[in-house]
Amino acid sequence: MRDLTVGRIDKNIVDLAIPMIGGQLMFTLFNITDTYFVGKLGTEALAAMGFTFPVILIASALTMGISTGSMSVLSRAAGNNDRYIMKRTATDGLILSLLFVILFSVVGLNSMDSIFTLLGADKSTLPIIKEYMTIWYSFSFVVFIPPVSDSSMRALGDMVRPFYVMCVCALMNVVLDPILIFGYFGFPAMGIRGAAIATVISRACGMCATLYFLNFHHKLLELRMPKISELISSWKKILIVGIPAVGVAIFPQLLRSFITAQAAYVGGVTAVAAVAAGSRIEGFAYIITQSVGSSLVPIIGQNWGAKKAARIEETRRFYNKHSLTLGIAMFVVIFFISDFTAKLFTQDAEVLKYTSIYLKVLLAGAIGMNLYTWNGQALNAVGKSFWSLVINGGGTVVFMMPVLYLGSRYSFTAMIGGLAVGQIIVGLISIFIARSKLKFEDGEKESILSIEN
Predict the structure, then answer these.
(1) Least CB-packed of 13, 23, 255, 337 within 10 Å?
(2) DSSP 405-416
(3) DSSP 8-state class, residue 391
(4) Please, what sign has the CA dihedral across residues 186, 189, 190, 192?
(5) pLDDT value of residue 311
(6) In 3-state terms, what secondary structure has residue 392?
(7) Rounded to two decimals, what is the model's pTM?
């Protein structure tokens, strides 16, 4: 375990964030590989893959909830040097994820026709979707387990081994996709089923690697069956953080859908295409933001468990200050490269113009995105994820959507400008909420990690 209750705050954040950045890039590579090779099968196959994304995003949100909850509880236990709760949290988080897998898979396998028809699939794409999702649902446990076990390692300050796991998954997927999709080296060409099998095999290898690290390196798997009361208590602590975290993961998808709808109103298909291209480039820009946010959970969680209030306050002041530094850097970089990067996605002059506007105007609000992402993760770390949901969900509905809508009544630039302003407002609000809530209340020092033995 890396003791994050000592050492320089800036060094701890950088040391943890760098492997996270690498992991995020590997995850992006994994998704791009699937899309690229499936696209070679034709428009129907690519469309079928597109229809699977909402379902996979929901699965990812559920996994993120359990992962965030486990990491929060475990990091606080680590700061308190409570080995029993550490092992129970890591193990019980995996058991909980398996229960979700069983329920999710059974429901998914028996509702494919109705769900994907509701999403807009027709007679030509539905059979292709079912080829892919039948395999994906049947082996979805290999998708659910690695993020949960990786989060347990991250709670201990180990970001390197989860990075190794993502490297294994991404590189195996790059190798297996063309072999199984198109049939090389004596394998039959399996089309989109090959993409699903490649995903399953890659994820299964990642699952084996992460469980090996969790058990043999960190020794966090507890094979003794707990009392039912212990199990329920452990799950309750995980879900107190995890359930709001699911909401936090879903709101950006709702906002993205709202942006697309308003773009269609203000600029038609051209503006929608620009938002699609711009959001992909924007995603790369925010990898650093997300990685720093993930590194804050073990740092603040361990210090909360160790009852080091002054160190938590020092961390909070540090990341708030540097949200401005990073925000300015992101804006400057995107200002100079936006035109070039947009040309990687389209050559249409109108789409290029809109994409450039989207990136330059939206990244002006990057400081707000940094602030509410990092303050939200800090609140998750101390078990106060309800306030993280208030910041992200409430901020989206009360501020970002309304100002985006008002801007769309004037122009595309005003629409994106409204979103940027909304992000800055929510970011500033998050400072005050986190400053108030990242403090120990009366009795909280004694009760925050209590569990029946």
Answers:
(1) 337
(2) HHHHTT-HHHHH
(3) I
(4) positive
(5) 93
(6) helix
(7) 0.85
